[in-house]
Amino acid sequence: LLVFYAARHKVVVRLKGGDPYVFGRGHEELEYALNRDVHVEVIPGISSALAAPSSSGIPLTKRGVNESFWVITGTLSSGEISNDIRLAAQSSATVIILMGISQLQKILSIFMQLRSSFEPVAIIEKATLPSQRVICGPASGILQQVQQQGVSTPAVIVIGKVVNERQVIQLAVQELSFAKVA
After folding, report:
1. Is the backbone peptide bond immediately before 154 cis, with ω within 30 degrees of 0?
2. Is the Cβ–Cβ distance between 127 and 47 less than 8 Å?
3. Using CA atoms, how far apart are residues 6 and 10, in angstroms rounded to an integer?
4. Phi, psi of 31 (to 5 degrees)
């Protein structure tokens, strides 16, 4: 469609939701258009892997808590779970999983086996939108919360001790709000 419309119009905009260059087809679309002599300009945005935790008050790294983060696809094009999830669970890194809600039970099982059933997890639904919801809890209980609250896609999964830092921010905001009222 990009090539079709580019041949007929002076300017065509392909506004891609999500992360076109992170587990998306953005680069494939770019190559396709360039191979057909269509001039392409890419204007990048902020990845949902960064925006979702940030908009929820969750740092991806924090001194004394962790030193790195992984961004992993939860579901491969074959429909299977990514093997990298097991590798990430063996580290102390924050793990951000995109496209993983359909594999949540398997993902949590791996983290409970390799980290702990108490490993902090956040599910961020519709990140950065007015309808954003954040559900936090231990790996052993988050699946039930997700099912009870009817979480759907798009949703980003964040696993690691930095999830607990969200509570620190929430308590500080509550204290400031209470101090202003008092």
Report:
1. yes
2. no
3. 7
4. -60, -45
Residues 71 and 157: their CA atoms lie apart, in Å, by 10
Can you list the pairs that 58-64 forms with residues at least 24 positions away whose Cβ atoms lie under 8 Å? 58/122, 58/158, 58/162, 58/163, 58/165, 58/166, 59/162, 59/165, 60/94, 60/96, 60/162, 61/94, 61/162, 62/162, 62/165
What is the tens place of the pLDDT at every residue in 101-141?
999 999 999 999 999 999 999 999 999 889 999 999 999 99
**Residue pLDDT, tens place only, 27-50:** 888 899 999 999 888 887 888 899
Please give the single-letter amino acid code of residue 164: N
**In what helix (H) or strand (E) does residue 31 lie, and over which residues does it extend?**
helix 26-34
The DSSP secondary structure of 111-123, one letter per residue, reads HHHHT-TT-EEEE
Q: How much is the average pLDDT of 43-64?
A: 88
Query: Does the pLDDT at position 179 exceed 70?
Result: no
User: Rounded to 5 degrees, what are φ and ψ at 43?
Assistant: -115, 105
H or E stretch at 169: helix 165-181
